[in-house]
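Changelog note: in this version the structure field was regenerated for every chain. One regenerated record is shown below for reference.
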Amino acid sequence: MATLADVARRAGVSTATASRIINGSSKPVTDELRARVLAAVAELRYVPNAHAQMLARNNRNAVGVLVHDVSDPYFAEITRGLQRVATASGRLTIICNTFREPERELEYIDLLHAHQVAAIVVAGSGYLSSDAETELDERMLAFEATGGRIAVIGRHHHASDAVLPANEEGGYLAGSHLFELGHTSVGVIAGPAALTTTADRLAGLQRSASAYGHSLQVVHSDFTRDGGEAATASLLASDPSVTAIAALNDSMAVGALAAMRAAGRFLSVIGFDDMPIARDVTPSLTSIRLPLTSLGERAMELALNPPPPNTPPRVETVPAELIRRDSTWPVAQRR
C-alpha cells in the first residue's frame, strides 16, 4: 500500500506539501504542484487518512447515531432516514447500538465526542429515571460546548432540537379504536416501564380508557416479538375475559398473534408503529402509523442545520395515524 512519502517522492515535493494538497489544507499551493501531487495519488492509488483530512480542513465529516438496537424494525426504519440525509450531506454515519443500557449510552457519547463528530442524534427512548437522564444531559452539554450538535428523537430531558413521535396521541387512538368496537376488557402488552416511549403510549391508552369508562390490564415485557408472546401468554392465563390486546409496538403484536395461535384464542390485536411486516402477517395487523423514515430524516436535518444564535431549541411533533386492517373486529363478532 502506498504511503504519503511515496506520493511525495513520485511528485517531487516534500511530504508536508503533499499532505496539504491531499488533505485540502487552506494554505496556498501552485496549480502545477497540485496537479503533480494528485497525479501521483492516482498512479499509486493512495488512500488518504480521514483523520488527517479532518484536522487539515478543520471540518467534522462524521455524525453519530445512538439507537437501542438497529436490528429492531423500528430503529431500522429511523436509521434509514438518518443515513439518507447524512449521505446526501457527504457525512459518514457511525451507528451505535446501546441495547437500552444507560452506561453504554454514556460511553458512546464520550467516544463520539473524542472522534469529533459533527453531530449526534439520540434515536432511542429517554428514561424516566432522573439519574440516568441527568448523566446523559451532562455528557451532551460537554459535547455541545466543543461545537458539536445534538438532536433527539423522542422525549428526553436534554434541551435540544427534537423530533417527537405523537406517542401519547397514538396510544389514545389505539385504545379508542378498541373501545369503539365494543371491547370492554382490554389487555395491554407494554415495553420496559423505565422508558418514556412506554410511559407515553401507555398514558394515551389510559386516557382513552378513562374517556370510555373502562380499565386496562397491563403486562410489561421486552419490546420484542418474544417479549410480546410471553406477555400475551401471561395475560391470557391470568384473565380469560380479555377480548382485545393493545401492543405498544408491532414486534410485540406479532408475538401476541403467535401466543394466541398456541392457546387457540383469537382476540382483536392492535400494534403500534405500522412496520412493513404489519401488512404481511395473518391476519394483517391494525396499527398506529408513525412515519419513521421521515422522522429520522427530519432529526438529521435538525442536527446538521443549526438554528440562528440565541434561539430556543426546535421541537417538532410527528403525528400518529390509525391504520385499520383485519386484526381488529367488533366484540360481537368474537372469533
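Spot check on this record: The CA atoms of residues 81 and 294 lie 6 Å apart. Residues 63-165+293-304 form a domain with the Rossmann fold fold (CATH 3.40.50.2300).
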